């Protein structure tokens, strides 16, 4: 009998937990909103009629000694050691006999390779789900790659046939 039960889906469990958490936060927002609209506190009192109840403002937090005053620009400390000019005169293999910097082919190759490689993923589990077709309703990534590859091959064949036809037409 136990084999007839379905295994719990971790994605739907997580979605359910997030929905519950959203509902709790919305309820808290509603209660805070009703408290705010129910008891409006006047921030100023009229000086024209001093009689009556005096309204006090809630005490503001004292400004920190290091906090900038309003209107002042905010600057952050800079590590000046990193900004210092590097002494490249100590590496003569980087320059030719005329003092011009040599062209670095391995560095160029690494830059090009890294440019076409693309950024690394921040969520490798999601990439694995997408590649294997683990998300219901989405095709596996290998299927999408195969379709794109076949389209490319068809396009190359059509372009080659058109160019060959033009070449044979112009030759005769």
Count of DSSP strands: 0
Structural class, from secondary structure content? mainly alpha
Strand content: under 5%
- Taken from the alpha-carbon principal axes, the silhouette is flat
Low-confidence runs of at least 5 consecutive residues: none
Describe the main β-sheet briefly. none
Average pLDDT over all residues: 78
Distance between the termini: 79 Å
Query: Any idea what the radius of gyration is?
Result: 34 Å
State the helical fraction: 40-55%
Number of helices: 5
The helix/strand order is: HHHHH
Feature tags:
flat, 172 residues, mainly alpha, 5 helices
Structure description:
It contains five helices and no strands. The protein has helices spanning 10-38, 80-83, 105-117, 124-132, 141-171. The N and C termini lie far apart (79 Å). The protein has 172 residues and is mainly alpha-helical. It is flat and about 110 Å long.
Task: Put the structure in a nutshell.
With 172 residues, the protein is mostly helical. The chain is built from 5 helices and no strands. The mean pLDDT is 78.
């Amino acid at each position: 009998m136990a084999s007839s039960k379905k295994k719990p889906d971790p994605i739907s469990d997580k979605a359910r937990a997030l929905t519950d958490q959203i509902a709790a936060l919305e309820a808290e927002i509603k209660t805070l909103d009703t408290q705010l609209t129910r008891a409006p506190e006047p921030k100023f009192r009229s000086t024209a009629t001093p009689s009556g109840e005096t309204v006090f403002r809630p005490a503001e937090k004292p400004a920190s000694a290091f906090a900038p005053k309003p209107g002042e620009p905010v600057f952050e400390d800079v590590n000046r050691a990193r900004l210092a000019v590097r002494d490249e005169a100590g590496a003569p293999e980087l320059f030719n006999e005329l003092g011009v910097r040599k062209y670095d082919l391995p560095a160029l190759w690494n830059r090009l390779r890294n440019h076409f490689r693309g950024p690394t993923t921040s969520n490798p589990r999601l990439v694995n789900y997408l590649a294997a077709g683990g998300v219901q309703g989405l095709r596996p990534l290998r299927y999408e790659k195969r379709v794109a590859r076949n389209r490319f091959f068809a396009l190359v064949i059509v372009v080659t046939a058109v160019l060959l036809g033009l070449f044979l037409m112009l030759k005769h």
